[in-house]
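Hi L.,

As promised, Crotonase/enoyl-CoA hydratase family protein:
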Amino acid sequence: MPAVANAGFVTYELRGPVAHIGLNRPEKRNAISDAFVEAIAEVVARAESEARAAVIYGHGGHFCAGLDLAEHVTKSAIEGVRGSRRWHEVFSKIEFGAIPFVSALHGAVVGGGLELAASTHIRVADRTAFFALPEGQRGIFVGGGGSVRVARLLGTARMMDMMLTGRVLSAEEGERCSLVQYLVEPGTAREKAHELAEIAASNAEISNYAIIHALPRIQDMSKEDGLLVESFVSAITATSPEAEKRLRDFLEKRVARLRAPDQT
Ligand code: 1HE
């Protein structure tokens, strides 16, 4: 039986090498309060210590309605800054931690919910998912890393439109705009996310670490700096004992060959 824990706002379950983190405040559409952020931080740390990949999903009808607006209404500017910086820390632990995270999205993926999803490495949406950044309508601004991460996924022009006009993107539009890498039938996002997380979990740990840490950073570098860093990361991963074993497994025909998707 998998270990299941409930840290208040989240459920936690280990399924083989994959930790499942469930946002669990469905009566408030998984809106993220300060205490909720801390619960996420706790289970993310736990997942990193005992799993090789993780899935984040939402209990109830929606993935996440973003920032808890009721709590935010009473905050001063400096409390807002501190709160936003804490979201940055926790979401950066997801983006730049030790293991790959896959988010399984359905229903509302809005505001801070989209920012959370954007900090994961792979996003799987079912066809009920919709995406919005209603910060303009609420009189606020993104504060969970959206101007950095969501803008990089969508491009500034699309994000500008969503923020200024409150435009809601359907799941299909989200896929077309590169917000999500997978689009699946309703109710199947978590299983698909698990399947992908299991595959990622079977990679060499050093490769996953290099992919998670080097790939996004290289995008922020100049072309020449990026190419140099790539060579070093490539050489370090390729000379690990695990790489040697995996390369031999391929050369000595012990592992399956790649095939076109329709031939598998
Ligand atoms: C909330 C929140 C919330 C729901 N904070 N309480 N996010 C938003 O602007 C999205 C606001 N939420 C919605 O548009 C809708 O609630 C949903 C589309 C997500 C779901 O609709 P629905 O009809 O299923 O639920 P509901 O009736 O609107 O909400 C159920 C309850 O959840 C209700 O509380 P109740 O006490 O009346 O039962 C809602 O008030 C509550 N609820 N969403 C607080 N977000 C780090 S900066 C990030 C900035 C942002 O994230 S801005 C975007 C905020």
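Residues 77-95 form the longest helix (19 residues).

Thanks again for sending the construct details.

K.
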